[in-house]
Amino acid sequence: MAKPNKDARAQARLPKGLRDIGSSELRAQAAMLEKIRAVYERYGFEPLETPAFEYTDALGKFLPDQDRPNEGVFSFQDVVPEARGEKDSEQWLSLRYDLTAPLARYVAQNFQDLTKPFRRYAVGNVWRNEKPGPGRFRQFLQFDADTVGTDSVAADAEMCMLAADTLEALGLKGKYVIKVGNRKVLDGLLESIGLGGDENAAKRLIVLRAIDKFDRLGADGVQLLLGPGRKDESGDFTRGAGLGAMEIKTVLKFIVTQARHYEPVSSDRDSGAGLYGREVIADYESNLKAWEKAVGTSARGAEGLQQLRELAQLFVSAGYQDRIDITSETVRGLEYYTGPVFEADLTFQTEDDKGNPVRFGSVGGGGRYDGLVERFTGQKVPATGFSIGVSRLQAALHALGQVDQTAAGPVVVTVMEKERIADYQRLVQTLRAAGIRAELYLGNPKKFGKQLEYADKRGSPCVVIQGSDERAKGEVTLKDLIEGAKAAAKIEGHEEWKETRPAQVSVKETDLVKEVKKILARHQS
User: Fold this and answer.
1) Res 1: pLDDT
2) Interatomic CA distance for residues 443 and 454, integer angstroms
3) Distances (CA, A) of 158 to 40, 121, 123, 321, 338
């Protein structure tokens, strides 16, 4: 029998598709979330938080992958020994894959007590049990707004306007477009090529997902997905819809004739005059008339066109026609959408690490889903919503240089005499009580230079120094590390440094808070 290896250690590694997030990114993220929250609140939405886990049957058939109804999510069996035999014993639980399915469960469970229409926003992590890749993680943050309990297209229009206002609040004026489509119009198109009825539901979903990839794969890639299938760069094969040549031609004609490349017509971010201009966004009605031919006699297609006409009127009335487009390639991949669908698309280009041009594309989307709550209640409960992919949007802002991920570190109180550490702790608490971020140096205080090196690495604006001489005078010495670094760069020798002591000043201990605040204010301006 082999002896156990006493030296065996757990390996420090991340699961694939997950990542750690450091302090600078988290601070930038928090600032961004507050701007999003302010817009959502301005629109009258109320916050709601639901658990990370839901019973798997509550997620139902609306999983990310219809072909693998128990995959696409992370699940485990809830076995409580003392509860064996009870209703909830041995049930399957799943991590939420979006924030919409938990909302549907919440509304159904609290339906009688909610003021309707019910308007809520939520921010939280979601999880997808899918193949990870560059920029594609299994855990990511979403920020949603939803209106439940009204079938008015004004609610859908409001979601598109909310999306536009949110992106502008984040400094993206002139660098985005909100694209709007309608699943009913697409259903009408598919009916016209013989893909109506429940028996074709699975094939319709494959077609819709193929169209949804038009912006990324182009006409050639979508053609393969509409036909036999497509193999990606990694060698993975995606099964196609198996349509015939004429059917593929009809679908591609519908998409390609209406698809457009969005570029700002002016480099003036603050002009506000036709951010995309009618040179790029075609007249709403010309699009809709072209789609009338595509859907033919389909009643469902005609209903979708009427909804889009009403949306167009609302966009024009509210002055959003230069920020919101109606276009055929907007589909959204999830099965549960039943009407208008929308996507927030960034139009600017940047470069990747290798210098190749990269277009960020979609950073959020949503649409109308009138069947999710009905699964629980048995009665129709219309709903619509919009979701922002927070991490992707933050990456886009960072590429534009509009995310400041630097933050001043704490003021560091140094330790000159180890036996007086209680006195130094008192100085730290004095600063904290005044609302100043501060910490006591907790390493080995033997080498003072190491304390300054630590403060530099922490990004500290200044350090507090008090030796026996300063204490006898009732003083402390403040060393401005930022100004000191600038001044030291101009000093040629050690002797000159000793004589000038750049950015270093002695102050009364009673003036500690006032003088530290002066230094902080100097670097915040």
Assistant:
1) 58
2) 9
3) 11, 14, 19, 13, 17
Backbone angles phi, psi at 52, to 5 degrees: -70, -25
Instruction: Answer yes or no: is pLDDT of 168 > 60.
Output: yes
Alpha helices in 173-234 (DSSP H): 183-192, 201-212, 214-226
pLDDT at 506 over 60: yes
Q: Which domains, from first to last, does the chain contain? A: 24-151+390-407 (3.30.930.10), 175-369 (3.30.930.10), 411-524 (3.40.50.800)
Q: How far apart are CA 151 and CA 383, in angstroms?
A: 7
The tens digit of pLDDT for each residue in 207-259 reads: 888 887 887 788 888 889 888 888 887 778 888 888 888 888 888 887 776 55
Q: What span, in angstroms and rounded, lies between the C-alpha atoms of 397 and 172? A: 8
Q: What share of the chain is helix, strand, coil (3-state, %, to 5)?
A: 40, 20, 40
Percent of the chain with pLDDT over 70: 83
Contact (Cβ atoms closer than 8 angstroms) between residue 361 and residue 342 = no
Q: How far is CA 523 from the centre of its chain?
A: 31
What long-range pairs does 199-202 form, CB within 8 A, spacing at least 24?
Answer: 202/66, 202/67
- With a cut of 50, say whether residue 512 has pLDDT above it: yes
Task: Match 């993220």 to its residue by tokens.
Answer: 29
| Residue 318 contacts residue 327 (beta carbons within 8 Å) | no
CA distances from 257 to 264, 327, 329 (A): 21, 10, 10
Q: Which H helix or E strand runs over 300?
A: helix 299-318
For residue 45 the two structure tokens come to: 């939405």
> Among positive and negative, which fits the CA dihedral 378, 379, 380, 381?
negative
The chain-wide mean pLDDT, for the chain, equals: 83
Cα–Cα distances (Å) from 386 to 47, 162, 353, 370, in that order, read: 14, 8, 31, 14
Helices (H), 63-172: 100-109, 153-169
pTM: 0.81
Element spanning 364, H or E: strand 357-368
Q: In what order do the strands lie in the sheet with 504-508?
A: 438-440, 411-413, 462-465, 475-480, 504-508
Asked whether residue 171 carries a pLDDT value surpassing 70, the answer given is yes
Find, among 371, 393, 394, 398, the residue nearest to 383 by Cα. 371
Residue 516 and residue 431 in contact, taking contact as beta carbons nearer than 8 Å = yes
256, 311, 355, 518 from 142: Cα distances, Å: 30, 25, 29, 39
Judge contact between 301 and 184, C-beta under 8 A: yes
Quickly count: other Cβ atoms within 10 Å of residue 525's Cβ. Answer: 5
By C-alpha distance, which of 134, 82, 99, 186 is closest to 390?
99
Question: Is pLDDT above 60 for 381?
Answer: yes
How far, rounded to the nearest angstrom, does the alpha carbon of residue 197 sit from its chain's CA centroid? 36
pLDDT at site 443: 93
Rounded to whole angstroms, how far apart are CA atoms 139 and 124?
10
